[in-house]
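URGENT: need a sanity check before tomorrow's submission.

F., can you look over the Aldehyde dehydrogenase record below? I want to be sure the sequence and structure line up before it goes out.
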Amino acid sequence: MAPTAPSNPQHDAHTSPAPTLALKPGTSWQDAWRRSLAAAPEAFRDDRVLNLWAAAWHPDGDPLPATSPVDNTPIAGPPRLDADAALHAVRAGLDQHRAWRQVPLTDRKARISAALDALTGHRELLALLLVWEIGKPWKLAQADVDRAIDGVRWYVSGIDGMVAGRAPLPGPVSNIASWNYPMSVLIHAMLVQALAGNAVIAKTPTDGGLACLTLACALAVREGVPATLVSGSGKELSPALVRSPEIGCVSFVGGRDTGARVATAVADLGKRHILEQEGLNTWGIWNYTDWPSLTPLVRKTFDYAKQRCTAYPRFVVQREAFADFLAAYLPAVRGVRFGHPLAVADPADPLPELDFGPLINAAKAKELAGLTTEAISRGAVPLHRGSLADGHFLPSQDTSAYFPPTTLLAPPSSSPLHHAEPFGPVDTLVLVDTEAELLAAMNASNGALVASLSCDDKETFDRLAPQIRAFKVGHGKPRSRGDRDELFGGFGNSWSGAFVGGDLLVRAVTEGPAAERLPGNFPDYHLMP
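Structure tokens as predicted:
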């Protein structure tokens, strides 16, 4: 186990020693596991989870060992199915789909609502599982659960109009999603897809979220929602979950490399698809002077260590404003709080309010350390390098999955940090002198999901924003994936297939008129909403 980092040497001798921290009572992994076993005994067995297919829980698959990124505590690992078992699961999913699509909408609404009530009753347990499995701080974990529940309730209230004149797909929707938002992205999508009349199939992310997803699916299945949840390697399960003729739509959230392979497969098959992929989201600073407003916004960008598809890891700054920008930026990054999400000084204390906890695993932290060191060796200028000594940790805690906030100026073009999303708490700054340079730097990754541009003049923003290749562009404020009726998609290589959000999500997983062209990025057309 790695020793606790030493106290900050910048503190003078008169500073009181930091209190010794301990795990808050009732929040251990063992506590969360026992509560999961009690809440859904059908889905958990002793020290492992089960796969869900054909409306039953199966003790098949070979569980991988797993540890929590929080402190390397052993946790339940995914029970990986092989390709043949996945095919059986998909075929059973088609049988469920054919029955479910005949269920009246009134009944579907009632069952989904009952599932949401059950999720609400286990809100804190679902959030605690997210803390241990993917390292989310407590408030962000609760927000992930709440966004899923509240978002689907919004769809329940408006689904009648959204499905009018439309029909479920010919086969179930297959969901392959990254680990970072198991509830507000994956469970949310699955429940809306089911509400629209489709059976749903999902692959658990290999890197985390297994127990949380298993509990959520167990609660939904009890209410009659037709869900399948299986574990396995993407390579092994892809023929079943992507290429099977039984699948009516593929919904993917993840990186560009894997997304490109999925996109090629679905394009070859002419299959309905929703592929959300990464892009380098950028924040531009041009003819801007409202610096006091920027500082709190910058700190907010470090939520969950920037491990989300709408994070802002790149700031493109007008050179003549750079000194003022640094004066606003550095206090924000220096104020970021990170560490163990469940560590408290006194058992009665509330859980800490942290901006982020660990990265998803130690390998990711090591990768970022290597990329940062390499970029600096090739000429990047370190403007801020946080220290684990500033973290909020238990005594003698394993901190191998933690990486402190870091900011680099002018990463070299040979560095991955110059053109790719780091998916961690590393900011890169690029200085520009002209509007053309600003736009080129903001469009470095050939398409993004979101971007922001801070400039005082609204007319300037209105002229430049359409030239930024991002689906959403904020004026002096961050943009997010959005909830409820807010649409979401991406430009360039950041998105393939149908756009989602609001009624577009329902349209993406239902069939309308024969000549319908869905808004989205398709091989033969691009159509904005």
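My own read: Residues 282-475 form a domain with the Aldehyde Dehydrogenase; Chain A, domain 2 fold (CATH 3.40.309.10). The first strand starts at residue 22 and ends at 23. If you see anything odd, call me.
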